[in-house]
Amino acid sequence: MKQNQQRGSGVYPGRVGARRLARSLGAAALAVLLAACVTTPITGRRSLNFYAVEEEVPLGAEAYEQLLSEETLITSGPEFDMVQRISARLVEAAAPEDPGYAWETRLIRSPTTANAFCLPGGKMAVYSGLIPIAQNEAALAAVMGHEIGHALARHGTERLTQSQALGVVTEVVNTTVEGASDYTALGGALIEYGVFLPWGRRQELEADRLGLVLMARAGYDPREAVGLWERMSALSGGSSTPSWLSTHPSGEDRIEQIQALLPEVLPIYEASRGR
Ligand SMILES: [Zn+2]
């Protein structure tokens, strides 16, 4: 893209030249986008990602160290043991889709914070305030499975890619305004890959689906995810809204979607129980 940016910043070449330039920039950008197209495990959704897994792992690890340096960790006791047990079972369940992440889970002491995350590259954390809302190990596994789902689907770098792709488009269009109609193909491709779509909700539903599969494979009853979301919803809107809800927005139909997925994941759970 460097070469194109240099060309784009040159002298404005006139209407005909602009259209030619537009097409050439559009074709180059489209080639980059096609090369960066990846398929999400389990759901099969195709998405745009400029980042290799090898880049995600050190990026995530760096962010993790920074986050943890500002927190107090719980490093022993029954809650710590439970979080480590869930993490180990879910990571084992994710093995078929594991792109080579450096998995690690910490428990952060923060009784008023109901939250959890899994960074790109597999670094996870649970805030202790989530445990009373989860109420049981399977429900906590639902949250952690959902977080691992975001990581396996590579939603973090997908978001990064989207903002960068939008930057590319803006730059190209600004350079050759009169040739705007030449961008139909590029714009269409971007829309197809979801750059202009409301990702937040789709990413949430995708993470829900991946999480349900993982918890079922790990031997946790996926029906516990329904209770978890009911308890989360009951707390939303007031001063005790779990912080997890603000970073994981959900539509009113989330519980319905989870219930609709249960026939798909309950047989996986039954099979894992029988092992
Ligand atoms: Zn989420």
Write a structural description.
There is one protein chain. The protein has 275 residues and is of the alpha+beta class. The chain has two domains: 2-49 and 155-192, no CATH class; 53-153 and 199-273, no CATH class. 61% of the residues lie in helices and 8% in strands. The protein contains twelve helices and six strands. The strands form two sheets. A four-stranded mixed beta sheet has the order 3-4-6-5, sandwiched between helices. The radius of gyration is 22 Å and the shape is globular. It starts with a helix and ends with a helix. Residues 1-16 and 171-199 have low confidence and may be disordered. It binds zinc ion. Zinc ion is lined by residues 146, 150, 204, 207, 248.
- Helix and strand element order: HHEEHEHEEEHHHHHHHH
How do the strands of the widest beta sheet line up side by side?
A: 3-4-6-5
Please give the count of helices.
12
The count of domains is: 2
Share of helical residues:
55-70%
Broad shape: globular
What's the count of strands?
6
Bound molecules: zinc ion
Query: Structural class, please?
Result: alpha+beta
Supply the key terms.
275 residues; alpha+beta; 2 domains; 4-stranded mixed beta sheet; two-stranded antiparallel ribbon; 12 helices; 61% helix; 8% strand; binds zinc ion
